[in-house]
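Note to self: keep these together.
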Amino acid sequence: MMLPVNKIFLQGLTLAVALSGHLAPEASAQITTVTVDTRAGKAISPDLVGIFFEDLSYAADGGLYAELIQNRSFEYQVTERPAWNSLTGWEFVQRGEGNGRIAVDEAMPVHPNNPHYIRLEIGKPGEGVGVVNAGFDGISVQAGAKYDLSIFARLLYLGNRWGSHPAGAMPLIVRLESKDGAILGETSFEVADFEWKRLSAAFTASRTDSSARLVVLAKAKGGLALDEISLFPQKTFHNHPNGLRPDLAQVIADLKPKFMRFPGGCLVHGNGIGNIYRWKDTIGPVEQRRGQANLWGYHQSVGLGYFEYFQFCEDIGAKPLPVQSAGVSCQNSDGKGDSGQQPMPMEQLPAYIQDVLDLIEYANGPVTSTWGARRAAAGHPEPFHLQYIGIGNEDKITPAFKERFRMIFEAVKAKHPEITIVGTVGPGSEGEDYDNGWKIADELKVSVVDEHYYQPFQWFWDNLQRYDTYDRNKSKVYVGEWAARGGAKDRNTLQSAIAEAAYLTSLERSADVVLLASYAPLLANRLHTNWSPDLIYFNNTGVFPSINYSVQQLFSVNSGDAWLPTKVDNIGKPVEFAASTVRDSKSGDLIIKLVNGAGTAKPLHIELAGAKNLPASATKIVLAGNDANVVNEDGRPPAVQPRESSLVVAPAFDCEVPANSLTVIRIKPEPTR
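Structure:
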């Protein structure tokens, strides 16, 4: 069972963290002393632990975005995958001696941004001529649940192609069917116009089925054009139309993230300049949005667009952190490795910079402004309170990048000094791009820079002091993408999760310079995984948080805004123990995090120097396992999960932390009289 969100809010203490070392085998029973000075401390970022969303491994379409139809607007292209075309995901059917043809057309589209649609020509209706869609690996429906259907349709004038054109309207039947043909829900329409009209209805599923399909059948002789065929569960996260899958969104919300970075990732700067993610293409009515190829090798409908991202941030209490390209494409464009970066032509830069400025207006502007009015028209007159914006994503730091980044940075800073700009220092934790990125940050005095690193689990133990020596007068740091990799196929292991927990204690200790951090990737469809490891896995019927998810959740839920000096004795090599203490000024709760990466339990003596008003007991949450290499099994909850109990506490008390464990001790002070 997943750990329920801790609802105690923190207040008034200040924390600090230090590291302890590995005990020699002959001293394994020796007690380690952890001393916390509750009288001192420093302010740290209360926004440290957040999330990063990228449409990778079918995280959006077929994932968080609740649309059940695949390729709903017939925009899949061979340029996205060699085997794809506009009819991918669809099957042409002629039932009961029905006879007809299907073709893809773009002569009179619903909208220029959505150019392709299908033509059905019915010579003999039989029991129906039309199309079938099985969604993303089957459409999962629940008995008694309601589903909203919408279709754009118009009549076609066929001349004498099938004889004389029929008089009157074209009957259209739409069904939810099981694989064996059982009808799970049905509705009907009459298409009577030669102009595009949106048809809508609702189904109530008659039974639960994880592999249903949608069937659209024309029932008379003639011609019909169809586009934007959509099926949505009525119940979405917070019941928003065009919303999010509720179970998947809730598991993300349960992380209690302090911010959310979106929409990427590498897809932001894209596979070449023409594939840069353009936020204006993702807002407005869905049939007017411009989908495009995803850098990860599939199609993005952008039904989950900027409005929906901002709305989700608001729903889960996370600050939005949108990322824009720095005017260059991904250096891996066209599979060329570091040589594939393409710069945007300079004559295009002014318009692109205006797009970035317009995004800030869309998020924060009044309803009387051009883009604030567009936000209000979407149903949100209040601003989204944008505070951060990212420019660039782990780019190769070339002269072309530097020139374009400077132009965008200076324009945003001049027009919106209230916005914190997050820059980038390349794709790694060190090297030429990292060094050159920091040189630009120093030169321009960039407020925050984004560091990325995916490393073997031991790297995180070896780098617990990485940020201790960073200059506090220079740019602050956002660790925008990070995760411990290792083991068979880089799967999620307890070993990697505990290494990440140890590293998070160091980020808390240095949260006066590391303002933000987000594990990556966030989501992965079990059947379409581009990258491992990931934080949350899912399929059409279930959501499976990883062991690493529990670590991120424990740190986010038990975060603070002050760091207290924590001293640990017996520091040795290799380092297999880490500790951190934080306090939240809102509740006064003192939160001690203890990470034991050794294969044996560690007895501790904890001293809370200067502590007053301590309760008789505190809450203790332990994530631990006997085998550090334990992994998540596909489709099952993690074998290792947090367990909560109580712990007797005093100004000095003893406890033991298990092998391969993260222990969180939360102490709520007694009220003063």
